[in-house]
Amino acid sequence: MSRRAPPNKETFDKLLLWLNPDREQAAKKYQTIQFRLIRIFAAKGCCDPEDLADQSFNVASLKVNWLLENYVGDPAHYIYAIAKKIFLEQLKPNPVVAPLEQPDNTELERRSTCLDRCLNTVTSQDERQLVIKYHAKDKQEKIRTRRKLAEELGITMNALRIKVCHIQARLRPCIQECLELLDE
Amino acid sequence: MALNNNDQTRIRDYLLGKLSEDEQQKIEERLMVEDDLFQELEVSKDELVEEYYANELSRDENQWFERNFLASPEGKQRYALATALGQLGASTLPTARPQTFFERLQNLFRQRSWIVATSTAAVAIVIVGAVFLSRSPGQTAIGPTLASNIHNREQGTLPTKFTIPANASELKIRLLLPANVPPSANFRAELDNKTEIQSVKVVEHDPEGVWVQVPVKLLPRGEYSLKLVALTPEGGEREIPGDYLFNIE
Known about the structure:
The complex is a heterodimer of chains A (184) and B (249).
Chain A: H1 9-19, H2 23-43, H3 49-62, H4 64-70, H5 75-90, H6 105-122, H7 125-134, H8 139-153, H9 157-183
Helix pairs in contact in A: 1-2, 1-4, 2-3, 2-5, 3-5, 6-9
Chain B: H1 7-15, H2 21-33, H3 35-53, H4 59-67, H5 73-86, H6 98-111, H7 113-118, H8 121-135, E1 139-146, H9 149-152, E2 160-162, E3 168-176, E4 186-192, E5 197-205, E6 209-215, E7 222-231, E8 237-239, E9 244-248
Parallel strand pairs in B: 1-3, 2-9
Antiparallel strand pairs in B: 3-6, 4-5, 4-7, 5-6, 7-8, 7-9
């Protein structure tokens, strides 16, 4: 639960204005900043990065009149600075983190079933084949296989990494949802 | 701003906790405003989770990554995908048992014909052998006979419950037809698991009913409905009213 209250409509409108005078662009900017904060603070092991991002915007809203008149620069930097302070506030000195359990064969089967389902539902046939080929080999063969795959597609290795990353970004929520349904 | 040669390494070091406080802050400030760098972060997360699962990180890297990114909800979500994808490269399976490997090969053989097409003849022979071996314990189980819920609703019948035998790889289910279906019709069937609808094989039919065969892997415990469509000789389709409901226990 957020410890800072969300802004009222008037303040929120001002916050959007501060992000960009064009309301549509402002909404996009808001989403981009929010998404990046969530991803960065997840990388730091934050267990509730969404709440941290919301709180950061709430704090910025409190100062929006000042920001509108005085702030120079990209608003993303300012909101990041707030987020970092909030993150440090809630940081525990030596957090106890349970080691990640290796899934057993039953769990692997469940995940594999969900992967099959999601490959069939959220990817095209070409994308499906690409992901399967990309992951089809083990350590020794992996690099060679991927290089060959990039050559076949006429793209750089980096473009291939990004392409697969985008497909996997669609698979992840699908798999999570599928696993939750299997749990029911 | 375009990425420079060091950025890929910096992002990797950032995710593995190898940067100083100042360096971390600088990279995070850039991540907030540089699209290419942020993209690199996303790609690197996937790759590191993959390496973590394949035990390719050093002990320290492993520990740091586990205590930080993998402790977040996003990290856990990425790990779930990595473990599923890890099975596509069979030797990365940490606790692989022979049956699973054969099942994987069987699936590849059945569903991903492009892999088979690009394999050498020798590999194909091994796969065929593996499929043969893996099929032998898997049998086709005869499942319940179901009537459409349109016809049994009046009687207040609940979905039929069925437990799949442990050695079954396919389940054969009989769907009773209503009286007014033309005898010359063929059929197609769909399985609805509440998340998605998938076609299933119609293996035979007679004037009273249709047999469908469903791979057991599509039937984890839960509630399902089958939908039947009659295909007329003129090329038309007619949906059989109602659903054939059943529960797998």
